[in-house]
Amino acid sequence: MSEAIDLTAPATALEQARQDAYGTPLDKLDVANGELFEKDLIWPYFERLRAEAPVHYCAEPEFANGPYWSVSTYDLIKEVDTNHETFSSEPTIVIDDPDEDFVLPMFIAMDPPQHDEQRKVVSPVVGPRNLAALEPVIRQRVCDILDSLPVGETFNWVDRVSIELTTQMLATLFDFPWEDRRKLTRWSDVATADETMGIVDSEEQRRAELFECLEYFTGLWHERVKQTEPGNDLISLLAHGEATRDLPERPMEFLGNLILLIVGGNDTTRNSLSGGVVALNQFPSQFEKLKADPGHIPNMVSEIIRWQTPLAHMRRTATRDTVLGGKQIREGDRVVMWYVSGNRDEAMFPNANEFIIDRENARKHIAFGFGLHRCMGNRVAEMQLRIAWDEILKRFGKVEVMGDPVRVRSSFVKGYLDLPVRLTAK
Asked: What residues are paired with 407 via a beta bridge?
């Protein structure tokens, strides 16, 4: 990997961010600022919160539509995430409350028993038997994608590799028409967008495109529900599942669960595929270590997911008055678990800002969450990343970043829009 491109934020910008983070009154810190994530300048803010206020109240946020608590250390995040009775996933898993006229219920934003019933319906598609059947399919697609890439020319890794691989995987899991598969990518991006991100021009446009998604999948649903022997794709499982067979009669809930499955199947793998390239360029000695021993790949996959943390946060809502980290939480308060901060907690991960492919406890990252809401598709994501790096090492001596990454302006999706790279043959 090349050391020519400094993939960290400019030193002057980082120093200014550090001054801002430590110079702002503690009660005024608002880490929901998407621009800090876009510019990769969020780190000193979370560093200060972990040290001075691991449970922190932002009473008047500029970047959220109401007050919220930030939970920033590993152990306290785990405490919240494993106590669904006190910290509910309803009504939403993101900081902002939904507009009352556009609420999208989804099982990740539900509590038991409804959550358990709906999740159980779709779980078989990512179960061990299906994963074993999918592995050769994924490997062939990875090979086809990598073999189509130009060697010695600069191209956008996000579009040609990260998006294409995850979109093909999503199309397989949904048994979605192959020629339309990029619609899935678009709907994923639109679902998590607002007017500041450059993806949609207005909330009206966002809603219109999501209703197109609902219409498309409703057509697929009606085709699958007629099958006497249901397939093993997500739509067939929902159409024939006892707890979900009437979802089209609740169209906003149907759309909500579609968006959950699309975004969940897209963002973790897509942004980790890009984040791994960034990390190995930022820490070139780790790429040399990897080339010397490809046996590090499985552990490196966990380290990539820890270091990148593709979804920066999840929110809970307090169901009753409680105490967390010595702070009084009131019933109804928003409590935001910053996974991106917990994964950089030095108390859990020494030298946490460094990317270390043989880190002993990399698998203890919290990017997938804890407890009953732990990411359902984590094994699929890990498998795609493992196969991708296995095949990359067989073909290329370098995956060299040629310019600054363009990151997403979002405090929820921690990802990339553009990553210019150049490949060197092995």
From this structure: 416
Structure tokens at 374: 């732990």
Instruction: Band the pLDDT of 36: cuts 50, 70, 90.
Output: very high
**Contact (Cβ atoms closer than 8 angstroms) between residue 353 and residue 344:** yes
In 3D space, the residue among 113, 50, 5, 58 whose CA is nearest the CA of residue 400 turns out to be 5
DSSP annotation of 10 reads P
Tell whether 167 is covered by a domain.
yes
CATH assignment at residue 237 = 1.10.630.10
The total number of residues shown for the chain amounts to 426
Q: At what angle are helices 164-174 and 251-282 packed, to 10 degrees?
A: 150
For residue 1, is it within any domain?
A: no
- Report the amino acid identity of residue 180: D
Q: Please tell me the pTM assigned to this model.
A: 0.89
Helix extents (H) in 82-202:
114-122, 128-147, 157, 164-174, 182-191
Q: pLDDT tens digits for 366-393?
A: 998 887 666 766 788 899 999 999 999 9
Distance CA 148, CA 150 (A): 7
- Using CA atoms, how far apart are residues 120 and 159, in angstroms rounded to an integer? 33
Q: Is the residue at 170 inside a domain? A: yes
Domain that holds residue 114: 11-425
Q: In this structure, are residues 13 and 41 in contact, taking their beta carbons and an 8 Å threshold? A: yes
Is residue 83 included in any domain, yes or no? yes
DSSP-assigned states of every residue in 247-311: GGGSHHHHHHHHHHHHHHHHHHHHHHHHHHHHHHHHSHHHHHHHHH-GGGHHHHHHHHHHHH-SB
Assigned token pair, 207 = 């809603």
Mean pLDDT of 112-130: 63
List the strands of the sheet with 68-71, edge to edge.
55-58, 68-71, 334-338, 313-318, 87-88
**What is the Cα–Cα distance from 210 to 32, expressed in whole angstroms?**
24
Residue 96 three-state SS: coil
Residue 150's Cβ-count burial label (10 Å; 0-12, 13-18, 19+) is exposed
Quick count: other Cβ atoms within 10 Å of Cβ 230? 15
Structural domain count of the chain:
1
Q: Are 122 and 270 in contact (CB under 8 A)?
A: no
- Element containing residue 155 per DSSP (H, E): strand 154-156
Residues 6+ apart with CB under 8 A from 362: 299, 300, 302, 303, 306, 356
